[in-house]
């Protein structure tokens, strides 16, 4: 092998490792800024910590005594009734049969909070868990994109690749950095599981492994995909994309009855983890399919929000508009941007939709390489996740975007990669320039959105921060 090529590859790997460490460090430091989200200001965001102690006490309810007035209410989930009765309650906790339960998924407790408590004898703060999950999301993204680039898109330039990977990471995690505890602990844990699920699935289907190693990687993909259901169920809908990957797997591997027995092992993680989650739900709410949504105490009566009740056309159309295409006026002062729909916050992702709809050559290449079915299924998953979010929520929060963003990012990287497959040197240079510029704009947008005062983040808690930044910027004009 050419020694210069080895040196070049090694240098690129070192640069990427250094860059990943820098990204993780910046994200972790950013999560330290708001006292609301770090727990320095005590709020209801310590549910994972309380749930960990409950498990150590060998029960599934949270060790919180409810207000006696709450027990007397005919409908404790009605916020107006609670207000009129002067009832104290724990916000965003599930309440059932006189006990509080954690509405958020249990998997992070078992994989992080409980081991940490047993080993170190103290609670792991929720925002620290988000830091860990976010770090592994970044690592997983770079490993995944590196594999795809090496296998399918070697013509993507080195700087362009790092720019794209950074942009897609930024798009998928910036809100975790802004408001890291509890809600984003749940979302980041699910996204982390799914990113690693994709990584192992893609390796199982497309890498040059023996059959047995493919099975092991596929089982790992199924394991992480199944865990996502116990973190945040809507995110786990992306497991639908395992279907087209499985079809390609069968297409690329001749299977005998002996090999089919091994293939069936891939389903075991879904079966085992699914049964355990249903047992957990039944033990709490007498319903294997109830995660606590309708028993949540919040600003709305959550029993009014269910999948069947929320499928109305008007609500769904309005929800899709807000999720994807709602626009907000730009500002002439820092941070210049406002929260908007996904396609206006990060318009680079319209490339994938445009290419699939208008470029026959792109669709043909995707089909030839067995990726078109995957992308169409990913699009279906994005639509289904959005429908579920709209149906079961009174409003669309900014953080709900992040149930989708990582899947949009992976799909868009694939579509962009296929621009390079048959490109000549001149086209490659043009693509590198265009996609690098778009990536840098995406990164800048993510950074600016981080500074938008919202949801008790650090610029909302310390509004003078924005004034200081504007004063500094004014000095350079």
Overview of the structural elements:
The protein is mostly helical. The protein has 23 helices and two strands. It has one domain. Strands 1-2 form a two-stranded antiparallel ribbon. Helix 10 runs parallel beside helix 14 and helix 15 crosses helix 19. The chain starts with a helix and ends with a helix. The mean pLDDT is 93.
SSE blueprint:
Layout: H1 3-30, H2 35-38, H3 47-56, H4 68-72, H5 79-85, E1 94-96, E2 99-101, H6 107-120, H7 126-152, H8 158-178, H9 183-206, H10 211-229, H11 233-236, H12 242-252, H13 257-264, H14 268-285, H15 313-325, H16 342-345, H17 350-358, H18 360-368, H19 372-391, H20 405-419, H21 425-450, H22 458-461, H23 464-475
Antiparallel strand pairs: 1-2
Helix pairs in contact: 1-7, 1-8, 3-6, 7-8, 7-9, 7-20, 8-20, 8-21, 9-10, 9-12, 10-14, 15-19, 17-20
């Amino acid at each position: 092998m050419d020694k210069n090529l080895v040196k070049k590859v090694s240098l690129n790997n070192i640069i990427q490792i250094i860059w990943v460490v820098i990204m993780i460090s910046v994200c972790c430091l950013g999560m330290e800024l708001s006292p609301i989200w770090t727990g320095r200001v005590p709020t209801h965001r310590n549910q994972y910590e309380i749930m960990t102690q409950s498990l150590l006490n060998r029960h599934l309810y949270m060790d919180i005594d409810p207000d006696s007035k709450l027990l007397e209410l005919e409908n404790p989930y009605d916020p107006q009734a609670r207000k009129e009765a002067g009832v104290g309650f724990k916000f965003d906790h599930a309440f059932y049969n006189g006990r509080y339960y954690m509405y958020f998924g249990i998997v992070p407790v078992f994989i992080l909070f409980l081991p940490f408590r047993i080993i170190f004898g103290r609670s792991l703060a929720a925002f620290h868990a988000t830091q860990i999950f976010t770090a592994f999301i970044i690592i997983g993204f770079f490993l995944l994109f590196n594999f795809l680039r090496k296998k399918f898109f070697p013509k993507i330039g080195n700087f362009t690749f790092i720019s794209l990977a950074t942009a897609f990471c930024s798009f998928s995690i910036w809100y975790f950095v802004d408001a890291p505890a509890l809600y984003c602990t749940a979302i980041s844990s699910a996204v982390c599981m799914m990113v690693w699920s994709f990584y192992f699935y893609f390796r199982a289907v497309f890498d040059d492994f023996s059959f047995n190693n493919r099975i092991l990687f596929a089982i790992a993909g199924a394991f992480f995909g199944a865990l996502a259901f116990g973190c945040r169920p809507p995110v786990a809908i992306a497991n639908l994309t395992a279907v087209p990957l499985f079809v390609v797997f069968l297409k690329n591997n001749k299977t005998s009855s002996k090999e089919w027995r091994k293939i069936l092992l891939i389903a075991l993680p879904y079966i085992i983890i699914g049964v355990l989650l249903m047992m957990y739900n039944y033990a709490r709410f007498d319903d294997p399919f109830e995660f606590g949504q309708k028993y949540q105490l919040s600003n709305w009566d959550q029993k009014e929000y269910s999948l069947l009740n929320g499928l109305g056309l008007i609500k769904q159309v309005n929800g899709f508009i807000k999720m994807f295409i709602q626009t907000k006026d730009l500002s002439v002062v820092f941070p210049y941007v406002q929260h908007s729909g996904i396609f206006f916050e990060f318009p680079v992702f319209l490339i994938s939709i445009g290419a699939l709809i208008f470029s026959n050559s792109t669709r043909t290449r995707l089909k030839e390489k067995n990726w078109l079915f995957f992308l169409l299924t990913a699009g279906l998953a994005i639509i289904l996740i959005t429908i579920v979010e709209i149906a079961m929520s009174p409003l669309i929060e900014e953080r709900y975007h992040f149930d989708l963003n990582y899947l949009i990012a992976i799909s868009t990287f694939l579509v962009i990669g296929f621009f390079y497959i048959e490109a000549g040197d001149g086209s490659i240079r043009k693509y590198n320039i265009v996609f690098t510029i778009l990536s840098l704009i995406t990164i800048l947008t993510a950074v600016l959105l981080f500074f938008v005062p919202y949801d008790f983040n650090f610029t909302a808690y310390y509004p003078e921060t924005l004034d200081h930044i504007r004063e500094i910027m004014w000095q350079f004009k």
